[in-house]
Amino acid sequence: MRIDPRKTQKIVFFFLFLATLLIVVPVGMIILAIIQKGLPAISWEFLSDIPRKGMRAGGIFPAILGTVYLVGGAIIFALPMGLLAAVYLSEYAKDNFLTRLIKLAIINLAGVPSVVYGLFGLALFVIFFKFGASILSGSLTLGIMILPLIITASREALESVPYSFREVSFSLGASKWQTIRNIVLPNAIPGILTGTILGIGRASGETAPILFTVAAFYLPQLPDSIFDQAMALPYHLYVISTQVPNVDEKIRYGTALVLLFLVLFVNLVAIIIRYHFRKKKKW
Fold first, then answer.
1. 55 with 242: CB under 8 angstroms?
2. Count of domains in the chain?
3. Of all residues in the chain, what percent are helix, strand and coil, respectively (each to 5)?
């Protein structure tokens, strides 16, 4: 009995479409619920004022600013370190057992629970280096947490650049570093930015790492230096949802909506930059 390939294709496409719906529809419903319940809370006062009346009134500006500080600090630390590590592993390291073991370890580190990174940051930065609970400790902890994502994505992006590009550069007399800097890296930027986007998304929404290293329940003033504590949207949302009684529902959902749009906005900027570089690719 001969099976019609077209019918098989339609069946496969149906199951693929069904799997896509099972992912997209619940996420879409969650986003719609957050927008519907959180939009009434959004106002200029809510976005620019400090919390008042035990976090039952006022705004969330300190938490927004703290989140921006933490995510920015994490990217400033993780992106250069991750890119340098990816360049070494992709372009300089020999293919041997040790290198393969390091690559496997990096991939496995991407799946380590965030609470483990929080305890690591507490032990290393807060206690050992004596940075205390501060923006610096929180940023470094988040940076280490997203480092495996950036290294893995950057290494794959570098290895996807055709080797013929390197051969042409070498034949023109360029050194290995000149080839990497002028040929490989520019063509790998879209993939590197993909890893950065994934890192931003994870760092923005994590609560456990900042709970141990930086987050404060409430601060009456904004941080003055990287050695100060800071409020952050994920922890603030956790506090007003579980620790503070009688908080208006729209404040909780409004905080979640601001966090959602903040992550989407940063990701959108990175995606636009990635699209700009992708247009320049000739292969």
1. no
2. 1
3. 75, 0, 20
Conformational region of residue 54, where left means phi above 0, alpha means psi within -120 to 50, and beta covers everything else: left
Which residues make Cβ contacts (< 8 Å) with residue 58, sequence separation at least 6?
A: 45, 46, 49, 50, 51, 52
- How confident is the model at residue 269, as a pLDDT? 83
3-state secondary structure of 219: coil
Asked whether the beta carbons of 50 and 59 are under 8 A apart, the reply is yes
pLDDT above 70 coverage of the chain, percent? 98
What's the sign of the alpha-carbon dihedral 199, 201, 202, 204? Answer: positive
pTM score: 0.89
Evaluate whether residue 135 is within a structural domain: yes
pLDDT digits over 53-62, tens only?
877 788 899 9
Residues in the chain: 283
Domain CATH for 183: 1.10.3720.10
pLDDT per residue over 138-196, tens digit each?
Answer: 999 999 999 999 999 999 999 999 888 899 999 988 899 999 999 899 889 988 988 88
In a domain, 51, yes or no: no
What is the domain extent for residue 141?
Answer: 60-279
Residue 17 lies in a domain: no
Q: Is residue 41 part of a domain?
A: no
- CB distance 220 to 54 below 8 Å: no
The b/e string for 100-130 (b: 16+ C-beta within 10 A; e otherwise) is eeebeebeebbeeebeebbebbbebbbeeee
